């Protein structure tokens, strides 16, 4: 269970009428309602999306996006937030590079086909360096440990 989602559930049980979210556009939402909205959306996401693949959100920062963000956490799905200042080209690149399976925008869900993106040479994620996570070599060092690496050549420069 995600810590933030657990905190929402605990607050909903202890103080359900307390305001959880107050947006200019959508008004207020108390913890009891927020918990129900998140649980419902998480169940929908779990049933309809592929576990472990990112989901993108290109919406404004209202109640729907708060619920989506918490529901993605509850469902264990990675969340890619696309800022409104991104150009269309930056958005396409971010979606392709992340492998996002869906894009939520303005109340609509757009399924995304698998896209490939050519990353610059030398980037640890470039096509020349891609390898399964299992290709990374675990070793100890003094730098901050990482739990995964997507590039075997990058693993030589990183600690796992």
List keywords for this structure.
globular, Rossmann fold, two-stranded antiparallel sheet, 5 helices, 6 strands, single chain, 4-stranded mixed sheet, alpha/beta, 160 residues
Describe the fold and architecture:
This protein is an alpha/beta fold and about 160 residues long. The protein folds into two domains: about 5-110, 3-Layer(aba) Sandwich (Rossmann fold); about 120-160, no CATH class. The protein has helices at about 5-15, 30-50, 65-75, 90-100, 150-155, and strands spanning about 20-25, 25-30, 55, 80, 100-105, 110. The longest helix is centred in the first third of the chain and has 18 residues, at about 30-50.
Compact overview of the structure:
The protein is α/β, with parallel strands linked by helices and 160 residues long. Helix content is 36%, strand content 14%.
Highest CATH level, the class of the largest domain? Alpha Beta
Mean of residue pLDDT? Answer: 76
Count of spatially separate domains: 2
Spatial ordering of strands, largest sheet:
4-3-5-6
User: What value does the Rg take, in angstroms?
Assistant: 19 Å
How far is the first residue's CA from the last residue's CA?
A: 24 Å
Strand content: 5-15%
- Tally of contiguous helical segments: 5
| Helix content estimate | 25-40%
* Shape descriptor: globular
| Helix and strand sequence | HEEHEHEHEEH
Q: What is the architecture of the largest domain at the second tier of CATH?
A: 3-Layer(aba) Sandwich
